Amino acid sequence: MIAEGEQVLIQKANVFRLVKVERRKKIFTEKLQFFLDNAIGLPLGSKFEVRNKQLFQVPHDSGVDQVPSEAEVDTDKNNEKIQDDNRSQKLTKEDLKEMAKQGAKGEEIIEQLVQNNANFKEKTSFSQAKYLRKKGKKYLNYITILRPTLRLLCNMYMAKSPSKICHLRVDTLSQMLTVGNIHAHSKVIVVDSCQGLVLGAVMERMAGLGTLVQVYHGDFPFRHVYDAFNFPASFDETMLPFPMNQLNCLHSPQSIKDGLQHDESAVTSNGEESTGLDVMKDTEPNVEDQKVEVTPEDSISAPRTDLSFAEGVSDSKEKNESSTTAKASSSDTEVNMEREGDLPTEAPNADGSTRKRPPWKEYKKDPARLERQRERKERIEQARTVLQQGNMDGLLIACKFHPSPLVEALLPCLAPSRTFAVYCQHREPLVDCYTRLRGRGGVLNLQLTETWLRNFQVLPGRSRPDMQMSGTGGYLLSGITVAMETETTSSTTEPPTKKVKMETD
Question: Which residues pair with 447 in a beta bridge?
């Protein structure tokens, strides 16, 4: 059912948009404006017509027929005698505007266009369906409200902004879930910078049963796509967050105490926990080691690391330091005045009225805020304990950073005979990670693969591959962990060598 507060997908033709169901909230999509009030309480998958910014439920077969039936297919007919000179249509733009002003429906306008088109009957059935589909996108105001699924969300981001999900295609994501052996009651580590797409896919397969550790970068974990799955609150209890900047002090007990003391004292002047700078400080030595070993040819195509990003930021700051001094000083003054309570700020309420926010000194000591900070630290410590046990069942990495430091830091957390999968849009970082793992040992069946996908059009008499397809779905590095023998165990298990008797004459 379409429930208030949940997120749904709105489909118009082949365009999808993710929105949150709220009353009295105007939705904009494909030049349409409407409210979702009339859709609340109806089943998901319902089809609606937009009239006067309101939704009215219609049958699923509403609209014009766009796909010819098998009986209508005539493979001997062609369009070679049709001249496309824009003179076959008798109706003008003024006539169409006048029909729209008189309140004509989309089906009526399309019917008039077909009747006044001199070449419509001479076209093949497929050309007629293409013509109707093109006019339907323009004049029909039908939308469908769907439940967000993994395939729909992945295809939506690939069509609109693939860079937000690192160009992760749905077939590559399915390969990751299969190679990672994700199932219920498993303990999985996920490093996701794809808006939470991989995180939601793993949680959907686990069905809220098991343990999921999310290694995130920044102050807080980002789960935009994960929230679109509308999981119940019980699923969030099985997820444990762990900051990426604390991976260096995960396996050394002495560094753990230093890391905890550093986290307790890492508070900025505005009271928030500062983790962004700590990420750069903790990962900078490791990234330098990685950059020394990567060849110049590989580093050109590889994504930017944290170090290179920090260098670029520092250079730009030095260039613009003289021009931004006055602006920085004025902004600091405004921030200080706001914290002292001299500048009262206002925030809108749900009913449209405004309320004054409490001063910063009072908000910093707010019991609810302190309770949230305490709970967040407790869950981080739980994730640390789970990772230090070293009996995790799987590892999935799909991020914009160089994967080698992350793989080397998280592989010791896996139990022997467990699988891992690392995704990257580019091949060179995975080649470097493959070389490091081969030299390090402790892994078997290392495979670096690229999936290839092409959709097919299946119609009566016209089955063929699609004319357009994506160039690549990224690259996937997978393997299996094994227990490494130490020197003590190998010396005790090897049988003693026998002395060879030398025969003498």
Answer: 478
Strands 414-424 and 392-398: parallel
The pLDDT of 387-416, averaged and rounded, is 92
Q: Are 41 and 82 in contact (CB under 8 A)?
A: no
Q: Which pair of structure tokens corresponds to residue 138? A: 């323009």
Which residue's structure tokens are 């070293």? 390
Q: Tokens at residue 253, please?
A: 């007990």
Is residue 475 a contact partner of residue 450, using CB atoms and an 8 Å limit? yes
Question: Please, what is the average pLDDT of the chain?
Answer: 76
First to last CA, the chain: 97
How large is the C-alpha radius of gyration of the chain?
Answer: 30
Query: Which residues, other chains included, contact 373 with Cβ-Cβ below 8 Å and sequence gap of 6+?
Result: 273
285's tokens: 């030595």
pLDDT one-digit tens code per residue, 2-50: 999 999 999 988 899 999 999 999 999 888 899 999 999 999 999 998 8
302 close to 429: Cβ distance less than 8 angstroms: yes
Residues 6+ apart with CB under 8 A from 320: none
What distance in Å separates the CA atoms of residue 46 and residue 7, rounded to the nearest whole number? 15
The residue type found at 437 is L
